[in-house]
Inverse folding.
């Protein structure tokens, strides 16, 4: 167990000690944010069309059920995130063992108390946590909107007069 | 001085063979490495030294024959052997993104050390290998000489009975070679050290017995002074090339 935890800590340190992790996180968050705002814009446009054509405004019950945040924003964002992960996950997982072999550190690992099963388990756990973190960062905006908290821009202080 | 109650031989190979397709890297090798010696494994590139030590560490399985390390088989009991084995790979086979102390913490943890025992082991090897000024530096920013000292330090963290050192001075400049050889010289007689090298002067300085391999076969074995004291020791390597 000690050996396994040592490898898990080392894997985290290696992952976040190189720019690949930050680049991947940023790219996935950016792509998802762009898609999210694009769908949110479309959703708002649809609401505006209904509000304009119906003098009752957007509170009116004339807006059909299928026009809602889940179907118009959340699920399309999820679909895009799925496609993004198809590219991002291999980027992360390919290096996990290939890097050890390229550096020659696979022999060092094998010469310790770690069994091949523990090595696989530690690497899988760290990559799984990273992908979960990537998805959480990506879905934060969409989840915020769905929870009804809205997205607010930071307040800008008025410059001192005079 | 370490004691080997279960055997007087650190490594014993009998008819040990390893094939890669049609190529025979180690060919029916019989070799006995006594405990508590600094033993040199000599040979030109491709002689079979690295393949032999990979079978000793359990990284490769033999195609035929057997090997016993500290009285156990690396095929049947790899875990028990690794508890008592330290391994130094060739230069720069480390994690460059980790700091020296972080790397040693990982290496010690991966060998089952923890808590105070781990901290004490790290302090001990840092002092022993002169790594104190570099402890907080990134491994990737160290010179090759210091990287090799870090590599040596990780192998001694768990106080092993047997340490295998593969080409410790390959690719180092003369000053760095002298530093690494100096560190290894201090360790002589404490435990079994198997030094894999093609540098004859290094073997003369550090080892008490040597085996010369050529094309995977044992060409010579004996006290370093006798084997390398011949008029033309390079003839061994020429002999190997024509073997």
């Amino acid at each position: 167990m000690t050996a396994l935890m040592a490898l898990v800590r080392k894997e985290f340190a290696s992952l976040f000690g190189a720019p690949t992790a930050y680049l991947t996180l940023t790219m996935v968050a950016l792509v998802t944010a762009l898609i999210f705002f694009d769908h949110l814009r479309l959703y708002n446009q649809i609401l505006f069309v209904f509000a304009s054509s119906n003098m009752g405004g957007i509170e009116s019950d004339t807006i059909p059920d299928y026009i809602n945040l889940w179907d118009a924003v959340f699920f399309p964002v999820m679909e895009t995130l799925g496609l993004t992960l198809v590219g991002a996950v291999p980027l992360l997982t390919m290096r996990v063992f290939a890097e050890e072999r390229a550096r020659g550190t696979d022999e060092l690992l094998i010469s310790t108390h770690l069994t091949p099963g523990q090595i696989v388990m530690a690497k899988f756990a760290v990559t799984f946590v990273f992908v979960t973190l990537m998805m959480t960062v990506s879905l934060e905006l969409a989840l915020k909107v769905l929870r009804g908290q809205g997205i607010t821009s930071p307040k800008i202080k008025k410059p001192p007069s005079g | 001085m370490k004691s080997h109650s279960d055997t007087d031989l650190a490594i014993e190979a009998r008819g040990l063979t390893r094939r890669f397709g049609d190529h025979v890297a180690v060919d029916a090798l019989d070799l006995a490495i006594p405990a508590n010696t600094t033993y040199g494994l000599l040979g030109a590139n491709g002689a079979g030294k690295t393949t032999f030590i990979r079978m000793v560490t359990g990284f490769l399985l033999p195609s035929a024959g057997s090997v016993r390390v500290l009285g156990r088989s690396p095929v049947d009991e790899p875990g028990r052997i690794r508890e008592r084995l330290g391994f130094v790979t060739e230069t720069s086979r480390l994690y460059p993104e980790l700091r020296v102390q972080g790397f040693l913490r990982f290496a010690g943890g991966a060998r089952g050390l923890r808590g105070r025992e781990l901290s004490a082991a790290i302090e001990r090897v840092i002092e022993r290998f002169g790594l104190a000024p570099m402890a907080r530096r990134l491994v990737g920013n160290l010179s090759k000489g210091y990287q090799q000292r870090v590599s040596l330090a990780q192998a001694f963290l768990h106080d092993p009975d047997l340490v295998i050192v593969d080409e410790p001075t390959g690719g180092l400049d003369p000053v760095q070679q002298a530093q690494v050889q100096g560190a290894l010289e201090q360790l002589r007689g404490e435990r079994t050290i198997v030094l894999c090298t093609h540098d004859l002067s290094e073997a003369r300085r550090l080892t008490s017995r040597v085996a010369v391999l050529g094309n995977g076969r044992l060409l010579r074995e004996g006290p370093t002074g006798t084997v390398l004291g011949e008029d033309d020791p390079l003839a061994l390597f020429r002999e190997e090339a024509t073997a």
User: Anything to note?
Assistant: Chain A has a mean pLDDT of 81. Chain A has one domain: 2-146. Residues 2-146 of chain A form one domain. The first helix of chain A runs from residue 2 to 16.
